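explain this:

___
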Amino acid sequence: MKDLVSIITPCYNSAEFIEETIQSVLNQTYDNWEWLITDDLSKDNTVEILRRYNDPRIKLLVLEKNGGAGNARNKSLERAQGRYIAFLDSDDYWYPEYIETMTDYMQEHNAELVYCNYSRCDEHLKPILKDFMADTVVTFSNLLKTCRLAPVSTMYDTKRVGKFLFPVKSKREDHVMWLNLLKVIPEGMPINKTMAKYRMRENSVSRKKKDIIKDQYLVYKDFMGFSTVKSLYYTVNWAVNGFLKYSKIFN
């Protein structure tokens, strides 16, 4: 029997895009999954849309207080029962073979963490940059300088290491969680195949690189416990790599 995959999704005011995301999960060729969606007190009709889907694998939790994406992901992770943990934000999209390809690779290669290529798209899912390529084995060391792992394109195996929660006091919670994970998983393996679409919305925090230098510095200073000099060194590396990654969309 196929191992259960737990899909972790935070959502907030996602009504405009959530149905495309839902359909991408329902279209998966791998069917043994549970989808743990935590709504962070949306003000639009996101919850109403989600409740239209009568699939027992979709498990919705509506929070009574807005706590941010990291907190919402943690609420889903706390309920997750699957061996494999996958992440899908409420405005992103998976190709039908995503789960099957990722889990097959992990089983065949005894890998504990894998990531794949993904398309970088506008709000209409039209590519606006070249696909981000999974062409490097990821380690704790090289992840310090640039974050190659995106929730939409990364999956890990909990069998040995368990589940990893997100820090709720960081605006760079993804990067902190990946770094913590790669302290115990030696390497993340690349799958050089595009199987996901990342929607780069106009108000996306990840597009405002100049505004989050301080938050990135705190990743190293507060969460990794590095010295000031070492934290500045890695922040500069991250900023340069981030600019190269998204240079065509900076004003």
Summary: The longest strand covers residues 189-199. The longest helix spans residues 228-246.
